[in-house]
Amino acid sequence: MTHDLVLVLGALAASAVETVEAVTIVLALGVTRGWRSPLLGAGAAVATLAAIVAALGPALALIPIDTLRLVVGSLLLVFGLQWLRKAILRASGFKAVHDEDKIYAEEVAQAREAGRSAGRVDGYAFAISFKSVLLEGLEIAFIVLTLGASQGSTLLAAVGALIGVVGVVAVAVVVRRPLSRVPENQLAFAVGVMLTAFGIFWAGEGAGADWPGGDSALLGLIAVTAAWALAFVVVLRQRRAPAPESAT
Amino acid sequence: MRRVIDAIVDFIVGDDVWVAVGVASAIGLTAALDRLGADPWWLLPAAVPAIVVVSLLRATRR
User: Considering chain B, what percentage of its residues have pLDDT values greater than 90?
Assistant: First the structure.
C-alpha cells in the first residue's frame, strides 16, 4: 500500500515537472502565433507517445521479472541520478534554477522573430510544440514504464502521471500564464530522490541483494537518499559562499 | 542510427557518463558478491552517494 502511494506520488510529481516545462512552450507559441498549430503539434506528440507506450508496455511484460528488475532498476537509477545531480547543483547555486518566466519570455521572443510559412498550419509553431511535448513526454513515459514495470503496477504509475498532467494543463488553461509558482525545482529534487531510491531498491534486488525488512526497505532508502542529497546541498552551498572578510 | 543511439544514451545518462559507469560497476559487484554467497544489500546504498560526490566534485570544479 505504502509502495503504491510512493509510486503514484513519484509519477505524479515527475509528470507535473515535465508538463510545466512543455506547457510553458506551448503557451508562448499559442499567445504569439495563435493556438491552432501549437495544439496540433502537442496533439501529434501525445499520439506518438501513446504509440510508443502501447508498443513498449506489453513488451516489458514478456521479460522475466528478475531480469526486468535488474535492467529497469539500473536504468531507473542512472536516470534518477541524472535528475538528483542536477537538482543538487541547482539547489546549491552551481547551476541556474529552472525559471519558467524567463523561458517563457525567451520562447515568446523567438516565436515573434521566426518567419511564418504559407498554409493553414504554422510549421514553426507545430514543430516546436511537437518537439517540446514529445521530449518532455518521453521522460514521463520512461518514468511510468520503468517505475510501473519494476513494481508490477504500470497502471498505477500511469494514473499518477495522468493526474499530474491533467492538473498542470487545467491550471495552465485557467491562468494562461507560465506556471512559475509551481515549485518545480523542489519537485525535481523530490523526484530525483524517489527515482534514485527506487533504482537502488530494484537494481539491488535484481542483482541478488536481500533487503533487510523486505519491501519496507524502500522507505528507508528514500529517507537515506534524501538525507545525503540534502547534506550535499549544504556542503556545496558552503563551498560556493564567499569566505567572510576578516575584521581587521 | 548512430545519432539515434547517441540520443538515447544522452536521454538516459545525461551530462556525466561516469555516473552510469559507476552504477554499472556497483551493480556488477553486487551480483558478483551475491554469487559468492555474501549478502551485498549494503553495497548500492553506500556506492551511490560516493558516485554522486565524485560527479559533483567534477561538475563544481569546471
Answer: 63
Stretch A34-58: mean pLDDT, rounded?
89
In angstroms, rounded to a whole number, what is the distance separating the alpha carbons of residues A222 and A170? 30
A/B interface, count of CB pairs below 8 Å: 102
The predicted-structure confidence for A69-87, as pLDDT tens digits, reads as follows 888 899 999 999 999 999 9
How far apart CA A34 and CA A27 sit, in angstroms, is 10
Given this model, what pLDDT does residue A242 score?
A: 66
Are the beta carbons of B48 and A200 separated by less than 8 Å? yes
Instruction: Name the closest residue on chain A to residue B34, using Cα atoms.
Output: A208
Chain B contact set for A236 (CB, 8 A): 56, 60
Place of cell 533504482: A199
Q: Is the ipTM of this complex over 0.90?
A: yes
A213: left (phi over 0), alpha (psi -120 to 50) or beta: left
* A88 contacts chain B (CB < 8 A): yes
Query: For residue A96, which phi and psi values (nearest 5 degrees)?
Result: -60, 135
The residue length of chain B stands at: 62
* Closest listed residue to residue B23, CA positions, set A81, A72, A89, A230: A81
pLDDT score recorded for residue B7: 79
Residue B62 has a pLDDT of 62
A82/B13 Cβ within 8 A:
yes
